[in-house]
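[job 0412] stage=fold_complex status=start
inputs:
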Amino acid sequence: MLLADELKTLFRRWRTIALLSALAAVPVLIAVAVRVTSHIRAGGGGPAFVGSITQNGLFVSFSALIVSIPAFLPLAVGVVAGDTIAGEASLGTLRYLLTAPIGRLRLLVVKFLGSMAFVVAAVLAVVAMGVLVGVILFPVGQVTLLSGATVGFGGFVVRALLLVAYAALSLVGLTAIGVFLSTLTSVPVGAMAATVVLAAVTQVADSLPQLDWLHPWLFSHYWFGLGDLLRAPLVWDSFGQNALLQLGYLVVFGLLAHARLSTKDVLS
Amino acid sequence: MSPAGEGAAIQASGLTKVFGKQRAVDGLDLTVPRGAVFGFLGPNGSGKTTTIRMLLGLITPTSGEFELLGERMPAARPTVLPRVGALIEGPAVYPFLSGRDNLVRLDSADVRSDASTRAARVDAALDRVGLTHAAAKKAHAYSLGMKQRLGLANALLRQRDLLVLDEPTNGLDPQGTREVRSLIRELAADGTTVFVSSHLLSEIEQVCTHVAVMSTGRLVAQGTLDELRAESVRRVVVETPDVDSARGVLAAAGLEPDAASADAPGTVTAALGESADAADLTAALVAAGVRVRGIRVTGETLEDRFVALTGEGFDVAG
Ligand SMILES: Nc1ncnc2c1ncn2[C@@H]1O[C@H](COP(=O)(O)OP(=O)(O)O)[C@@H](O)[C@H]1O
Ligand SMILES: [Mg+2]
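[job 0412] stage=fold_complex status=done
writing structure:
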């Protein structure tokens, strides 16, 4: 079974560990900054939830996740998904995988699943480190949700896991795009850069009111819809719409990637 | 499957690959019998690697058809390729994995490969190419020769019916080259068909039973080594101060003396036909008063034949 080996190879790579470490550093940075400056500036301004951190350290995780969504997470996804096929091509190992043999469709599926496993690990790294550093540096207690209700630590863990699932789901489309771009070239850096640039351009387009007809079709459209999961009772609307949109991207770019890889002349 | 199983090990007809305007491989008809050690010769750029990539299903032929081990390719890839070990255009490694983990990864890529024997097969392959002591080292620390050995180990991970080795001696020292040759002999003795490409005849001549010669995408010769040798021509070399009269005598005997060469003044050479006899020629030369310093007959080496078929020296085709 190649997936197990793919995961082992991916997560043993120095580069993967560096990316996860960098993501885990985001909550540390936020927590330390708030802690150091808490006597100067109490509450107000900055990213969502930052103002609440001094009262409840658990908010470090929410805050760090929201800070990571527009740039750090897409960057990490671009690096990993963009490398999937192009990286094997540039090493020359693609020809040995294919003659092992592994079916080209199977390779694509394994590479996509491996990238998604990385996405989950990346989001978890942010949230889990957020919880850890929040508990260490700040008092913790009942978490007040956006709707005003409060939940205990158990309820918080459930909500945090929901956020992890939401953020990972949000990146399915970008991952599929990255894998597709990776089938186009044997220069991994090219596919990585293209994926990251696309994520940035899409978010800019999503912020331009002139393009509002396009917004519901952009893979980044629901990226910040995770607030719905912080209400009681839970509101599942953006989760459902997001899932449908991401699934659409997965199907379209999955088919494109398959069409490309299955007919590709492997010359590297 | 016995080495004499159904069909040839490789059977290609009209295999063609066009890159842009260039016909990298042009109408290749190739038959590699089971059990052969088949030398696939040709200068750099003559289309050897392109042929091998087509045979292994890495690139789609522009036209033509082929079978591997009696099965129609590329449709039979999933069942045929596990029985084919390959080294294609040099080794490729994951630099961040150890030599052993490189092999484990490639072996586990095929869902049909037996995971329970994997560790043992990997170790046996490493041992066979002499890499056991470096198996735990990361591959980025490997020399080119070690990477080449790792690539060979990958080709030997399973019981193979056919080995396709593209320039397997590249990057190896003379000792390594000898080891590859004896490895090929061992494998052939076990009944494995070996298809080995090289741009150097001398590297594989000693182990081959058959050869095919490529030149700018076309096959220019194919057969057993003996058949190819039989096609080569014997020449007579006469050393004499009387060059002109010697040429006259040879011409009168029905030979066609080669043009005089500035490199070898005082020698006359000519291709020796089937019937001509050196003893008769010597008598005729002496009778005509030609002063003969020496006369000998040389066989054309296979190397000469190779050069004659593919054009001179180091020119890169394309
Ligand atoms: N990807 C490619 N694009 C264009 N031409 C190529 C490509 N790969 C090989 N060729 C050309 O095909 C010819 C045969 O190359 P190759 O099969 O690698 O030769 P060999 O292995 O005998 O040295 C060469 O002239 C080479 O320039
Ligand atoms: Mg070559």
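[job 0412] summary: Residues 106 and 128 of chain A are 32 Å apart (CA to CA).
[job 0412] exit 0
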